Amino acid sequence: MQGDPGRHHVELHEVHRFPNTPVAVGRGAGDGAPTLHWDVLALYRGVLDGLRVATRTFGTLSGVGIDSWAVDYGLLDADGVLLGNPVHYRDARTDGVPDRVFATVPAADLYARTGLQVQPFNTVFQLVATAGSAQLGAARRLLLIPDLLAYWLTGAQGAEVTNASTTGLLDVTTRTWATDLAAALGVDTDLLPPVREAGSTIGTVRPEVLEALGHGAPLPVFAVGSHDTASAVVGVPTSGPDVAYISCGTWSLVGLELDAPVLTEESRAANFTNELGVDGTVRYLRNVIGLWVLQEAIRTWEAAGLPADLHDLLDDAAGIPALTTVVDVDDAAFLPPGDMPARIAAAAERTGQTPPASQAETVRCILDSLALAYRRAVRQAGALAAQPVDVVHMVGGGVRNTLLCQLTADATGLPVVAGPVEAAALGNVLVQARGAGVLTGDLAALRAVGSRGHEMSRYTPGVLVPDDAAWDAAERRAHGVHHR
C-alpha cells in the first residue's frame, strides 16, 4: 500500500506461483471410476512457500488473506485432523443428486431460502451424495477450502460468509446457516462452523509456522472475500450502480452487485444465483463455464501433438468470420474435463450447424459463444433485478483476450471496461488493508484506492459485429431453435 492516506494506491507484486493439479484416485480393484481430488496438502505447501518468499522479499508482513474457489470442503475428525483429500467439484459423484434433494425439499423452497442456482456440485449436493459414508460418519467439522487453509495457519475454525453462501446451506437473507434446512436433508448441523464476515480477523499465524516462515513478528490472518469472485468484485473499479461485471477466468461470473437478493420464481427459472458479497452486498449472477472450454481444447490439442500456442490461435481466430458456428457453452456437456473440440463439433451437429473444421475455427466458435452467453446473462440480470446496465466491467485473466473483450462489447451493445487482471488479489488486499487499519471507509472508498495505478482498456460496441439482429440469430442457432 503506497502513498499518503488520502492518495493511497496498491502495488501488487507476484512473489510465488504454484500449480493446482487435481488427482484421480481409486479405492481398489473393481471399485469403478476413480474419484477426482484436490491435492490440498500441496496447496498448503504452496501457501507456506509463498509466505516464506514474501517474508524474505519484504520483511515483516502486515497480514494474510486467503481466497479460493467455492463449494469444495475438507472434513475434520474430533482431533481436528483432515479426513482425506477434498473431492473436486468436477467429480461425478453428484450426478443425479439434485433430483434426490428436491424430492425432500422442493427446488423452489430451496431457492427461497438460499437464493442459490442449481449446480450439481453445490456443497449440499456433495454432502447428500456421501450420506452414510465412513468418512462423513467420522467427521466433526466441515471447512471450505480457504477456511481449511486458514485453520492450518491459525488453529481457528470458521466459515467466511461469501464462500459459505455457495454451499446451499446458508440463509441468503439472514446470512446465517439454515440449520432446519440442513437437518431436513440429513446434514449434521454440528459440522457447520461459526459464520464470519469478510473484514474480521481470523487469528494470528501459529508460532511454529512463523518460525518455519522466518517471520519474526505476529502475523494476523484476515477474513477477506474468501470466494475469489467476491474479492474480484471488490476489485472492480466502479463507483456507479448501473454496472454489470464479468469476472472472467476458468469460470466466468456474470452479474450485478445488489443490496438485497432476488428470490423470484423468474430468477430461479433463469438459474441466477444470489451469492453474498463483502459489506452486506449480494452478488447476483450466473455462472458461465468460461475459458475452461478453451483451456481444455488447448490441452486436447497438446496431447495430440498439435500446435497449440494460445497467442497464435487467437491471431488465427481473429481472421475467421464471426458467428459462423456457435454453441451453448452452458450445456452440461462442457462441464467435465475432456475433448472439447469433439464436444463442440457434436453440439454444432445437434443444432444443424457446420462443425468447426480447424483449430482456429474452434477457437473462434468458443469466443463467439462465450460473448453470446455474456450477452444473455447481462441482459437477464438487469431485467430480473429491475436494474439498468450502462457499462460492463470485465476483470480477471480473460481481459488479456482482447478479441473476447471486443466481442463482449459487440454482443451486449454496451461499452466494456477491461481490467485489472488480478482483480481477486486486489480486492483481497483492499479488505486486508481495511482490517489492518491502513484504509477506512466503505466499498466505494476501497475501490477508489484500488482503481489508482491500474491501467484499463475500453472497448466500444459495434466494431466487429455491429448488427444486434446477427446476435439474436446466433442465439437461436446455438439452441437449435431454427429446427423446431
Written description of the protein model:
The protein has 484 residues and is α/β, with parallel strands linked by helices. The chain has 2 domains: 36-222, Nucleotidyltransferase, domain 5; 238-484, 2-Layer Sandwich (Nucleotidyltransferase, domain 5), CATH 3.30.420. The protein contains 19 helices and 18 strands. The chain has a 7-stranded mixed beta sheet with strand order 14-15-13-12-16-17-18, sandwiched between helices. A 3-stranded mixed beta sheet has the order 3-11-10, sandwiched between helices. The chain is globular and about 60 Å long. The N and C termini lie far apart (58 Å). 45% of the residues are buried. The mean pLDDT is 94.
Entry keywords:
single chain, 484 residues, alpha/beta, Nucleotidyltransferase, domain 5, 2 domains, 7-stranded mixed β-sheet, 3-stranded mixed β-sheet, 19 helices, 18 strands
